[in-house]
Amino acid sequence: MNEYYERLQKALAAVRERTDAVPFAGVVLGSGLGGLADEIEIDTVIPYSELPGMPVSTVQGHNGHFVFGRCGGVPVVMMQGRVHYYEGYTTPETVMPVRLMGLMGIKMLFLTNAAGGVNWNYHAGDLMLIADQICNVPSPLIGPNIDELGVRFPDMSEIYSKRLRSIVRDTASENGIPLREGVYIQLGGPNYESPSEVRMVRTLGADAVGMSTATEAIAARHMGLETVGISCISNLACGVTSAPLSHAEVQECADRVAPQFKRLITASLQKMYDQLS
């Protein structure tokens, strides 16, 4: 057995010792959104550190827990914090939690993040539905293919599901939540981008930039999971504004927008569950 797949199977066995839940959705909570996991009807909480072979979060604001329960009545497993490439993990390691949720039996994946606004028309506090992405870090599929997870050369023409995006758009409109739509690019970090790098990614067609998400979406599509993603534009990228950037600024803005963001996620999940389960 492939060593990577064996690690996933051991982690899955450890999860199954704690819960037999088969959630409808997996939800990855980005910076400032971890509190949503504390607000759902919680059944089980499993720290990543208690799962053999699973990478652990080392970043402030990323607790590093799987939280099982119901969000607005929808059976979910939430990643309260993610692991990042810049923490020293390989990209295949960073997507292990997403792959593990896939093996738990989730039907769809809901990705969230805090991102820098690259589009000149964006403002801190905007929410952006991810229409497509650019991955500027090594693919998480590098290495021997694991046939049990997906095909060697997976199609990426629709990484973010059209029908799930349509549901999020309708939900935002019904709830009076302004929602932009654009392209997300993942860079390596942990440093923020230089003004020239921001000009580069804008030229490439990106509207928002961050240090996560794209690799997770690739891994999810490799497994055949229907995926949707939303970015909280927590700051304007370097060069869009003259102010220096800080993690505290990102967290402060994400915290401020969190109630609206949580409402959109919860209502969208309910609609997806009603329509797709």
Chart the SSEs and their pairings.
Layout: H1 3-16, E1 25-29, H2 36-39, E2 41-47, E3 65-71, E4 74-80, H3 91-94, H4 96-104, E5 108-117, E6 127-135, H5 162-174, E7 180-186, H6 195-204, E8 208-210, H7 214-222, E9 226-236, H8 247-276
Parallel strand pairs: 1-4, 1-5, 5-9, 6-7, 7-8
Antiparallel strand pairs: 2-3, 3-4, 5-8, 6-9
Helix pairs in contact: 1-4, 5-8
What does it look like?
The chain has helices at residues 3-16, 36-39, 91-94, 96-104, 162-174, 195-204, 214-222, 247-276; strands spanning 25-29, 41-47, 65-71, 74-80, 108-117, 127-135, 180-186, 208-210, 226-236. By secondary structure, it is an alpha/beta fold. It has one domain (3-276): 3-Layer(aba) Sandwich (Rossmann fold). The chain has a 5-stranded mixed barrel. Helix 1 (3-16) packs across helix 4 and helix 5 packs across helix 8. It is globular. The relative contact order is 0.20.
Percentage of β-strand residues = 15-25%
Number of domains: 1
Strand adjacency order, main sheet: 5-8-7-6-9
Poorly predicted spans: none
Tell how many strands the DSSP assignment holds.
9
The first-level CATH class name: Alpha Beta
| H/E series | HEHEEEHHEEHEHEHEH
The coarse overall form would be globular
CATH topology group: Rossmann fold
Helix content: 25-40%
Helix/sheet category: alpha/beta
CATH homologous superfamily classification: Nucleoside phosphorylase domain
Give the radius of gyration: 17 Å
What does the average pLDDT come to? 92
The total count of helices amounts to: 8
Q: Indicate the CATH architecture.
A: 3-Layer(aba) Sandwich
- Termini separation comes to 33 Å
